[in-house]
Amino acid sequence: MYEEEAKRRRNVELQNQAALAIQRQWRQYLQEREDDHERMKSIVLQMKPTSPELESASTGSAAVSAAGTYSQSTQAALLQEYDDLLSQRTAILERNLVCQHRIACHFAEQRTRKGEDNTNNQLTPPEAERQYWALVRKLHEEKTRLLRKRQAAEEALVHLRERYQGAIDGVLAQEAEFREFIKEISQCASFTHSNHRIPAEDVNSFLEIDEKQRGNIRKARIRYLQLKNEAKRLRHLASQGTGGGSSDGMYLIDLEQLKIENANLNEKIEERNDDIAKLRRKVTTTVHVLTHMREKLEFKREENAELRFQVAAVEEELSGVRDQLAQSKKRRDEFLNSNLRMREKIPLVGSENLLIDYEQRKARINESRIRVVDLTNTHVELVKQIKKYTSEVEQLLRELSHYPTTSATAH
Fold first, then answer.
1. Is the Cβ–Cβ distance between 129 and 29 less than 8 Å?
2. Of the candidates 40, 21, 149, the residue with the CA atom closest to the CA atom of residue 86
3. For residue 70, is it left (φ>0), alpha (ψ between -120 and 50) or beta?
């Protein structure tokens, strides 16, 4: 860790030294330019039109006479324009130097974060300045080339848009019609179990999710086409560079790396397409589950309403039964109180043995009463018979009283 810190500090010091060397060289260059400018002024003031510095500065700016003489006003205008251009160039170069220094520090920090060690590749200040200006020129050329290429691409894009704008508008119109068709169908559709309409919020959310998925697919297709074109361009560059002698191996290596990257990107695209398909299936399943749950929720709500109605009816019935129960308890208490009073008055009530004995005695009394009645009837009959027989005996006695002898003899 300490070695890396020391390397980083050494890199920063070397970069600062290179930047100071470039600034020193640049100041010397500016001083030389100022000296040349002063010499030019003196030459112009001395009316020497053959100076190469003045000719290079005034090229294309004003009309020059065939004999090479200038008027005083033209010379003053040229000098003023030259001074302005020099000051603008100086300011631009100083600003460029500061920006390049910042960029160098930024790249150094990036290399330090990545763990690169460039201590062996440091150049001396003159070589660094030469390489720097060469890279600046190359950067300017690349920017110009990219600008031309961008303009050509923009022109081609405009041409293609003009060519295919009708088809694009037709596709967008068909998509809008298809969405409207989906909305109309969803408005007319209903669930099989509950016969409820599909809510507009669900339809809109489904259309939004479908639009997002279509946008993702569109982006994936555009990315695929870009990578395909990039691979085609790299193959073309590789085929053009096959005659480069010793660089054939490098082109082949780059081509193989690009093929591997392209294969990896194709795999990623396939994985992304699989993810999109999974998401669509998941969305479809979620929509079905939500639809089923909503139907079940509606059914449960209706069932709950019916059960609430039944509970209300049962509660009403229960309140009536409670009233009856209270009245029954009241009557029971009254019966209990009357029973207690009856028991106090009639001790037999409540004793089973006494009641059985009472019933038995009552049965015997009834039997005795019946027997008394029968005996009374028999006694009456016997009394009648006695009276009858008594009258007959008396008659017989009276009849026997008429025979005294017989009676005396008998005595």
1. no
2. 40
3. beta
pLDDT truncated to tens, each residue of the chain (411 aa)? 455 666 666 766 666 666 666 667 667 777 777 777 676 666 555 544 444 343 443 434 333 343 344 456 676 777 778 888 888 887 887 777 777 777 777 777 766 666 544 444 454 556 766 777 778 788 888 888 888 988 888 888 888 888 888 888 888 888 888 888 888 887 777 777 777 777 888 888 888 888 888 889 888 988 898 888 888 888 887 777 555 444 444 555 666 777 778 888 888 888 888 888 888 888 888 888 888 888 999 999 999 999 999 999 999 999 999 999 999 999 999 998 888 887 777 766 666 777 788 888 889 999 999 999 999 999 999 999 998 888 888 888 888 887 654 444 444
Q: What global pTM score does this model have? A: 0.29
Contact status, residue 235 vs residue 255, Cβ threshold 8 Å? yes
Q: Round to whole Å and give the CA distance between 206 and 192.
A: 20
Per DSSP, what are the bridge partners of residue 197? 190
Neighbouring C-beta atoms of residue 18, cutoff 10 Å: 20
Tokens of 5: 């810190």
The closest of 287, 303, 230 to 262, measured between CA atoms, is: 230
Q: What are phi and psi of 190, to 5 degrees?
A: -150, 160
Q: Where are the domains of the chain?
A: 2-122, 125-188, 358-402
